[in-house]
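Entry type: protein chain
Record version: 2
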Amino acid sequence: MHYRKHIFCCVNERTENHPRSCCSARGSIELRAYMKQRAKALGLDDIRVNNAGCLERCELGPAMVIYPEGIWYHYDSEADIDEILESHVLNGKPVDRLQLKDGDKFPEHAGFDRLNLNVAAIDSVGAGLVRIELRNSKGGNLPKFDAGAHLDLLIDRDRLRRSYSLTNHPVERERYVIHVLNREKHSGASEWLHTTLKPGDVIQARLPENVLAIHESATRHFLVGEGIGIAPFLSMSARLRDIGAEFYVYYLADSRSNAPFERTLQEICAQNLETHYSSERFKANRLTDSFRKYAAGDHLYLCGSRDMVSNIQGALPDWPTECIHTEHFFPDHGARLNPQAFNVTLARRQKTLRVSDQKTILDALRDADIPIDYACEEGLCGACRVGVLYGEVEHRDSVLTGAEKSANTTMMACISRAAKGQTRLILDI
């Protein structure tokens, strides 16, 4: 049979010459299998997908070359493969964003996908709390977001970056709404938003991200938010109401005067809202009576301080860890104790950096002008997630699940370090 196009995929297996840092460790084999399946589904019978062994670009992770054009692509996901097959192979339009130039050793870092947002309104809604409404500075709709998502603002000419939960309904495409509590005296981020930002200003942000997404297939949903940690549950409860899900919200606050979202939540949740004040906040046994007994299909979402989250988790020994989803708004500064120096090898760049006991991996990368996304710098947002190819990590973040930490295949460069006694990590950078 004559083939119109040949696609050669680097799917080199792990060998002595190609260790775990090669493309096979980054999903090439699985993605090639998907490519063959997808090509068949699209009716591309005159396309041949070939194993190519090593294409001498293992640093790239998944890579392919399409002949007769001789166009090289880097790809990371099934969505990338779909775009290459449908745009290039079916319609003859190369995918510029995934193309590799001759001699490329790793794909160009795209940096932050930034949005320019106009400050439409700023309103005080409680003691030290403001509501900020943001709109597209060019007019029109904003990128969509899912319930529970947050927005990373680039504050004070990009000197500070902080994450804030989107509190409006996800169906609203014309605006983003966040609530900011003035409490970060150590960083100045929220203070800057309270005292300097004004209506009419333009501020930059990253595209919305979500580390507390709703598992919509769940049978029941229990949402527990402490203080400002209730913020992501505003959009989540609205979404759950709209899809007819069974859900319950528990709002922990110092007092009624410090529970500014109570009325809004009552309108959304009706009788399915419980508010606990003051000394009741950390009585986990009393609070968790409502959901202590786990039933198949239950999911629990927790957002608040580390004490609150750990207290509630400790009171629920029968709950599967994969059914408990958490987000913290305070970092664990105690985790910074007993630092030690170590080396990080950047597999794609074949470069080794020294991380001193006074610096983070993120610091070392920035000192070496290695581009990397980051935001909170406290292990709270997940923006600086990197792949781990070798070495044991001491995970200090509040993003990864227990299973993800045990797998030891990813880490947060801003706060996590090499484990005690570990002298080197190899990262997928």
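Comment: The chain has four domains: 5-100, 114-206, 220-328, 335-427.
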